[in-house]
Amino acid sequence: MKSQDFIIKVKKxxxxxxxxxxxxxxxxxxxxxxxxxxxxxxMGPSGSGKSTxxxxxxxxxxxxxxxxxxxxxxxxxxxxxxxxxxxNRKIGFVFQAFNLLPRTTTLKNVMIPxxxxxxxxxxxxxxxxxxLKMVGLGDRMQHTSNQISGGQQQRVAIARSLVMNPxxxxxxxxxxxxxxxxxxxxxxxxxxLNDEGRTIVMITHEVDIxxxxxxIINIKDGKIFKDSPNHARKII
Length: 236
Ligand SMILES: Nc1ncnc2c1ncn2[C@@H]1O[C@H](COP(=O)(O)OP(=O)(O)O)[C@@H](O)[C@H]1O
Ligand SMILES: [Mg+2]
Description:
Elements: E1 6-18, E2 23-35, E3 39-43, H1 50-57, E4 65-70, E5 73-74, H2 80-90, E6 91-95, H3 106-116, H4 121-134, H5 150-162, E7 168-172, H6 180-195, E8 199-204, H7 207-210, E9 215-220, E10 223-229
Parallel strand pairs: 3-8, 3-9, 6-7, 7-8
Antiparallel strand pairs: 1-2, 1-4, 4-5, 9-10
Bound molecules: adenosine-5'-diphosphate (ADP) and magnesium ion.
Magnesium ion binds next to helix 1.
């Protein structure tokens, strides 16, 4: 296997949070690789280190020790400017709390990464419309994000995550704040994106959500204790 076939390579990653009184080992010597086109769920109970791992994978935070290679680039060597550029171009983020701008149309929300990415205005509009239609919100483009349901807000966030055509979609508890029938719709979209060849890394503590992935990595107390293909995958 060629090394460039891996979008993610982490080697002996540890993260220790230090406060005046306490040291917390949130990640303890974690190693794994993810190939392009995989659909991976990272599962574990609350406090197991999932969000810490997501922040490192998203180049939003750095490990205390260990190595992270994202699409062939050693993340610890990059400057802050290079990091924000990589985040904007290579990674589509989907968060539990959607992180949309309130009182702002869904169309404008979806265009934001392209404003940072320097994409011309007419092209921004076309691309934003395309992805809003793709997530089934072609009739909600002029609604503001507070005028639509939680599941719809998360679909807007997914459309926003796609506009720069990222190689990797990173989702942290994407269904944590929405009703279960809407959660299935979100998983259907992820499945479709993965069928189109996009790599998805999804963090969840819910078995019902993880079962849509093709591979499940289980973490507990900051350590991987199981990493295996999901033979019982649920296909919608
Ligand atoms: N900024 C921080 N400062 C200190 N401790 C933290 C910080 N963020 C997370 N932790 C601790 O690290 C551990 C892992 O947290 P987290 O990665 O948020 O887990 P999860 O997302 O699985 O719930 C927990 O014990 C948590 O309290
Ligand atoms: Mg978390």
